Amino acid sequence: MEILIRNGFVYDPLNGVNGEKMDIAVKDGKIVDKVNERKARKIDASGMIVMPGGVDIHSHIAGSKVNAGRLLRPEDHFKDFEPKTPITRSGVGYSIPSTFTTGYRYARMGYTTVMDPAMPPLEAKHTHEEFNDTPIIDKASYPLLGDWWFVLEYLREGKIEECARHVAWMLNATKGYAIKLVNPGGLEAWGFGHNVKSLDDQVPHFCITPREIIRGLSKVNKLLNLPHTIHVHTNNLGKPGNYITALETMKCVEDLATENKPVIHITHCQFSAFKGDDWRTFESGAEEIANYVNAHSHLTMDMGQVIFTDTTTMTADGPFQFNLYELSGNKWVNHDVETETSSGIVPFHYKRKSYVHAVQWSIALELALLIKDQWKIFMTTDHPNGGPFIAYPKIIAWLMSKKAREKTLKKINPRAKARSLLPSIDRELGFYEIAIMTRAGQAKALGLKNKGHLGVGADADIAIYNFNPETTDPSKKYRTLRKAFKRAAYTIKDGKIAVKNGEVVKHVEGATMWLDVQTSEPVEITEEMKRRFKEYWTVEYENYPVTEHYLEVSRPIIVKADV
Length: 563
Hints:
32% of the residues lie in helices and 22% in strands. It is an alpha/beta fold. The chain has two domains: 2-52 and 458-504, Urease, subunit C, domain 1; 54-446, TIM Barrel, CATH 3.20.20. Strands 1, 2, 3, 4, 5, 21, 22, 23 and 24 form a nine-stranded mixed sheet that branches. Strands 11-12-13-16-20 form a five-stranded parallel sheet, with helices on both faces. A hairpin with a 3-residue loop joins strand 18 and strand 19.
């Protein structure tokens, strides 16, 4: 199919296009210079915004943890459902939607690429089976490697190159995309009923510290030339005073940066930007975090915006989830995945009148508005931890409209409002900056060269929104803005029109992306390693890797490593 999108206001930050009226041509699933105007299907985008398809760097959408959340919360199924249509399948779920529902809801908002950030390697096959069931969007996952026994042993012994070759094997075996660290060292400590409290605590039985894990895997990441940096959920997440730990985590890899390239991504930073000695003295540490980020270029981060709603928290950070269970008194699931990682799931409700919850809501927006360079901070809710991803249009309105923020501020806890920095922040982001935070910046940080832009050769993943930036002020018409971003006028995936006027009109298969990491020396899987697999795991070594037949639509990305 050839498509010609005409006269739209185009926002394409990776190519420096800021609201220019342009035509976009599509052929064979790619952006091209021109098409046969007589034969091409024409879309009149006059008075509309045209952007690359949305990219989500961090959203828990698939795998064993997500499925366990669905089992834990049958009440979540009835809060929202997808009716069957001649095109779509039925589905359920509000904060933990089913697979088909996830693809439909992202596509309706103009999103075409979503990254799941926490895959236990042992359960990678489950993750990929759910990816196969998730339509329209391209997706990938980050295997949890920060507390993997072999990694800890290699790093303890200073064997960085050996560790890099082993990580390369792990990425190939799990069909993963990036190195994920969660509460480095804390997950292994949790296996013994403990946690780590600082970057220099010893991990039980391994004689290694979180600082050494973070620095070691950052070096591994550079040796392997991976497209994304290490993706880090910091220690002490969710605890008052943890902004100090977050800053120390950023500082500990400063010297590893070269040519101003990021070497670390701090995920859902809102949960790591808490000041105070306890919950009574709890307050925002966003200003301190933002000041550091504004002065340094070796990191990126995402927001982890809290939404005032009922949701489901889920993370590989088992000790954090146990603390949340004790704080909330809600039901709780804990899961330790053999020698690899841990996880926990707790239902949660963020309330406007709660002082702590209201401060959390404010922190993420403060970070996004105080950080001057939007290429360093991206829009997420850490779905579903801060709230479901369907709230993205609401967040866009808060970022673009001080009036929208003020409306919410009037409804929150008065003490939280008095301490919030938001009333003093006049900044309102424009569509160019929103395009960076929701697609261009995220694609760049992920190293997805064919995503997040509308240049010739890019994947024809395009979102068109029915909002005229020339005649309508988004800061004043934020309800209209929310409506536009909630239901895209068109979502085009791989050159096919998947969504029109907010409704799915075509089932399009999204691809699973993964890294084919090729090392100069072959990775040696020794008999000793095979023996340990037999001793430590319930799955034999030969059955551990994910073979390509598990991936219905596979898109491998070849990476040449320096080891």
